[in-house]
Amino acid sequence: MRTESDAHFQKPMRVAIAGRQGMAVSVIALIVLSTACVSQVEVKAANTGIPVLLSRIDRINSPNPQAGCFSGGSKGQKAIDVKVAHTSIIAAPYASTEAQDASAVVDATILATTLGNPETNVCVDSLTASTRAVYWVFGVLDRTMGWLKAHPETAQKGDK
Amino acid sequence: MRTTAHGSTHRRALAICWPIVVAATVGSFGCAGARARVVATSAVFPVSMSPAVRDTDGHILMEKNLVKVGDFTLRFTSVSMLWQLIPLSRMKHDISLEVDKQVKAVNGEAVVNLSLHVRNNGWNTWNALIVGWGVFPGYAKFEVTGDIVRRR
């Protein structure tokens, strides 16, 4: 026979048990998430025909820096300083496993500043890259969305 | 009776609070990791992130004008703690000496297609999630790669 005191004890106990189970499920879910997704970022500029220089030397067999990049411009070259990595990572901060190709940024910058002058170099002051654990979470979301887009029938079943 | 009611209130408060604690933990590991800045200011050879590099007379040389004679590879690890606020390794990595050494070793003339690959690791999440919420050191592995080339 259920007494008033039994009812009083059972309710908070159920809440506490539900809390412990929920915590366990959450921890397991986070462990799965953390091991399933590793954040990787690759910064490159492989699809442009313009030299994208990290060095001050801009020519083969050139003993001294003579590029327009750092000397203020010479021989028709225009100095452009682009923080390629910074720009590209901001453009796609959570495409955690995809390459960050800066070529589009480079080409757009050159087009905007020199109207496509072929004598232009792009000078990269420094190449900065960082990785943060939060990318993993965004990476999981990104992958999930990508997978659902690739398998629309699954998403439709889920909606039903 | 009063004590029991008081205890149940505590348990209920704990049950309500744990999602907040989990959310705070997840939020705190957003900054666990590391960063690095790569420069090559004193390299003797031209270093380009694109396939293009200039010849001595200023003409642009593309892949068809160049022959690959080797791979440039440099790996290093960057370490920081307290959500990247305290760097424990050099933030700035000058790859000039390594470029000069590797290019000379294969008798090359330039490095093209340079790319920087940064990779997170499981420790950062464990550090953030279980061990210390990002207080302890976290690290990231960096790999700089490129093609060592010379003119045809």
How would you describe this structure to a colleague?
The complex is a heterodimer of chains A (about 160) and B (about 150). Chain A is mainly alpha-helical and about 160 residues long. Chain A has helices spanning about 5-35, 70, 85-90, 105-115, 135-150, 150-160; strands at about 40-45, 50-55, 100, 120-125, 125-130. Chain A has six helices and five strands. The longest helix of chain A is centred in the first third of the chain and has 33 residues, at about 5-35. The radius of gyration of chain A is 27 Å and the shape is elongated. The two termini of chain A are about 45 Å apart. Mean pLDDT of chain A is about 55; it is low at about 70-100. By secondary structure, chain B is of the alpha+beta class. In chain B, a hairpin with a 5-residue loop joins strand 2 and strand 3. Chain B is rod-shaped. Chain B has two domains: about 1-30; about 30-150, Hypothetical protein apc22750. Chain B (Translation Initiation Factor IF3). At the A-B interface, helix 1, strand 1, strand 2, strand 5 and helix 5 of A face helix 1, strand 1, strand 2, strand 3 and strand 7 of B.
List strands and helices in order, with pairings.
The complex is a heterodimer of chains A (160) and B (152).
Chain A: H1 4-36, E1 40-44, E2 52-53, H2 68-71, H3 84-91, E3 99-101, H4 103-114, E4 122-123, E5 127-132, H5 134-150, H6 152-159
Parallel strand pairs in A: 1-3, 2-4
Chain B: H1 2-28, E1 33-39, E2 53-54, E3 60-61, E4 66-81, E5 86-87, E6 92-94, H2 96-105, E7 110-119, H3 122-131, E8 138-151
Parallel strand pairs in B: 1-6
Antiparallel strand pairs in B: 2-3, 4-5, 4-8, 7-8
